[in-house]
Specification:
8-stranded antiparallel sheet; about 15% helix; 4 helices; about 210 residues
Length: about 210
């Protein structure tokens, strides 16, 4: 299901501008693949290339948290695009999302997996894994731990200098499938709103090809 861009943007600058996020959520989710997610902390900088992302288009989308309306938990999703929506998944790990679309449209993109690019040793210490391990960042909770993303980053401006996306100059081959673990959403679970880089070993679950 294709959607036209609502706003054009120029990818010339390294850090992605607000206009990148102020577009239909399916467009943003697809174009996140290949971009760098960067986090600067006192410990150092870590970054990974996004290889898997899912679009959530509430409030009609029953798989989206915003299907339940505006709450303290989902407030960031209703705000301007280009901000972070972070939540605790299954009571165990943090999940990082990007607010997309127009203000008042509770749409978000879940970043599901990264290929580590910068700060691998720091990521490895945080995860207790080898820097070369596929397990380092091949899932939402894993990448959040590797990049030290927590509830403290809820609502942070992704156009700032701490946590942001960069243009990587990479043109991946993109695959598409249904989203992961959303069977409860009935017909919405059948939407092919998961995007991933074909053949990348850091993609969390099949299909990867």
């Amino acid at each position: 299901m294709a959607e036209p861009d609502s706003v054009n943007y120029s990818p010339d600058a390294c850090k992605l501008p607000r206009e990148f996020y102020a577009r239909p959520v399916l467009t943003v989710a697809r174009e996140c693949i290949g971009k760098l997610l960067v986090h600067r902390t006192p410990e150092g900088e870590t970054a990974g290339r996004i290889v898997e992302a899912e679009a959530y288009r509430g409030p009609l989308d029953l798989a989206a948290h915003s299907a339940h309306g505006l709450t303290n938990r989902t407030a960031a999703m209703f705000g301007p695009p280009g901000f972070a929506y972070v939540y605790l998944a299954y009571g165990a790990s943090w999940a990082f999302n990007i607010v997309a679309g127009a203000e008042g449209e509770p749409h978000a993109v879940l970043i599901r997996a990264l290929e580590p690019v910068r700060g691998l040793e720091l990521m490895a210490r945080r995860r207790g894994r080898a820097a070369t391990s596929r397990d380092l960042t091949n899932g939402p909770g894993k990448l959040a731990q590797a990049l030290a993303i927590t509830r403290a980053h809820y609502g942070i401006d992704l156009c700032g200098d701490r946590l942001f996306l960069e243009e990587a100059g990479f043109n991946p081959k993109i695959g598409r499938s249904v989203r992961i673990n959303v069977a409860y959403a009935r017909d919405w679970a059948l939407k092919p709103w998961r995007f991933y880089e074909r053949g990348n070993r850091y993609v969390s679950v099949s299909p990867r090809t």
